[in-house]
């Protein structure tokens, strides 16, 4: 399992690599746990000046590996699982080093949200982004919607969340979701050059600049995550979600009551 997510060090730059290309780097429970461990390790590495998060294969990540759902016996409620996930991903806020994400192919669902919680996103031409949760009867619950709202406002965030449609790299750049779009073959090189420039600056300067920006952005995102925790728990216990699942299983139209 461990080789599905890699952590490498090269001087002051750390690189996290999604390494499950056969499944477009879809995340399962084991990859989640390893990601939390990697972030915890990086929190303790004060010599790291920049972190790159990239992927092998055609996509950054297609989101959740649905084939793994139910494959493990987990003695935690859905609420507890979400709480653990929130605590894990919020470690991104506690790093001294900024995290740069190299987005290519698909970035879907929770993986897109995690990228949104990082500092900088660079897209390869042809990259696409999507939050399809509502089409599966649930809501996005990884905190990225709060950051998406900050970046591009109520209208665009509502469009992406409520319709579940895809956003391409050009649109993502126009809305500020990504800061640069480059040819696919130049993605890793571009992100590496950006990381090297950041790593060459005085460490305390980058740390304090990131802290100032974080203090502007993080309170709203943390509040959004707390709201998501309550809302998703309610959705999972709702009559409508039970009807959604029943209608899918029975291949019939759903009849929703709003409760």
Account of the 3D structure:
This protein has 259 residues and is an alpha/beta fold. It has a single domain, classed as 2-enoyl-CoA Hydratase, Chain A, domain 1, CATH 3.90.226.10. It has eight helices and nine strands. The strands form two sheets. A six-stranded mixed β-sheet has the order 1-2-3-4-6-9, with helices on both faces. Helix 2 links the parallel strand 3 and strand 4 (99-103). Helix 2 (78-89) packs antiparallel against helix 7. The longest helix has 35 residues, at 203-237. It starts with a strand and ends in a 9-residue tail after the last helix. The relative contact order is 0.13.
Topology overview:
Blueprint: E1 5-10, E2 13-18, H1 29-43, E3 50-55, H2 78-89, E4 99-103, E5 106-108, H3 109-117, E6 120-124, E7 128-130, H4 144-163, E8 166-168, H5 169-175, E9 180-182, H6 187-200, H7 203-237, H8 239-250
Parallel strand pairs: 2-3, 3-4, 4-6, 5-7, 6-9
Antiparallel strand pairs: 1-2, 7-8
Helix pairs in contact: 2-7, 3-4, 4-7
Count of discrete domains? 1
CATH superfamily: 2-enoyl-CoA Hydratase, Chain A, domain 1
In helices, the fraction of residues equals 40-55%
Number of strands: 9
Beta content comes to: 15-25%
Order of helices and strands: EEHEHEEHEEHEHEHHH
Secondary structure tally, helices: 8
Shape descriptor reads globular
Helix/strand class = alpha/beta
CATH architecture: Alpha-Beta Complex
- Can you identify the CATH class? Alpha Beta
Q: Please state the CA-atom Rg, rounded to the nearest Å.
A: 18 Å
Biggest beta-sheet profile:
6 strands, mixed
CATH topology: 2-enoyl-CoA Hydratase, Chain A, domain 1
Tell me the strand order in the biggest sheet. Answer: 1-2-3-4-6-9
């Amino acid at each position: 399992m461990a080789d599905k997510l890699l952590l490498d060090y090269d001087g002051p730059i750390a690189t996290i690599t999604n390494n499950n290309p056969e499944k477009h780097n879809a995340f399962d429970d084991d990859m989640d746990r390893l990601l939390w461990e990697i972030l915890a390790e990086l929190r303790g590495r004060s010599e790291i000046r920049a972190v790159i998060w990239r992927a092998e294969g055609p996509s950054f990540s297609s989101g959740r590996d649905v084939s793994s759902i139910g494959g493990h016996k987990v003695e935690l409620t859905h609420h507890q699982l979400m709480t653990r996930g929130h605590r894990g991903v919020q470690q991104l806020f506690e790093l001294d080093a900024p995290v740069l994400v190299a987005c290519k192919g698909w970035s879907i669902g929770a993986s897109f949200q995690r990228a949104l919680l990082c500092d900088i996103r660079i897209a390869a031409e042809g990259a696409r982004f999507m939050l399809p949760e509502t089409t599966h009867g649930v809501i996005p619950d990884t905190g990225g919607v709060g950051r998406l709202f900050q970046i591009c406002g109520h209208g665009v965030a509502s469009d992406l969340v409520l319709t579940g449609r895809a956003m391409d790299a050009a649109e993502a750049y126009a809305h500020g979701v990504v800061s640069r779009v480059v040819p696919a073959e130049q993605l890793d090189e571009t992100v590496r050059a950006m990381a090297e420039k950041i790593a060459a600056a005085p460490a305390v300067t980058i740390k304090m600049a990131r802290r100032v920006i974080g203090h502007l952005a993080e309170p709203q995102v943390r509040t959004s995550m707390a709201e998501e925790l309550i809302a998703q728990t309610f959705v999972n216990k709702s009559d409508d979600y039970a009807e959604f699942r029943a209608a899918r299983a029975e291949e019939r139209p759903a009849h929703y009551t709003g409760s």
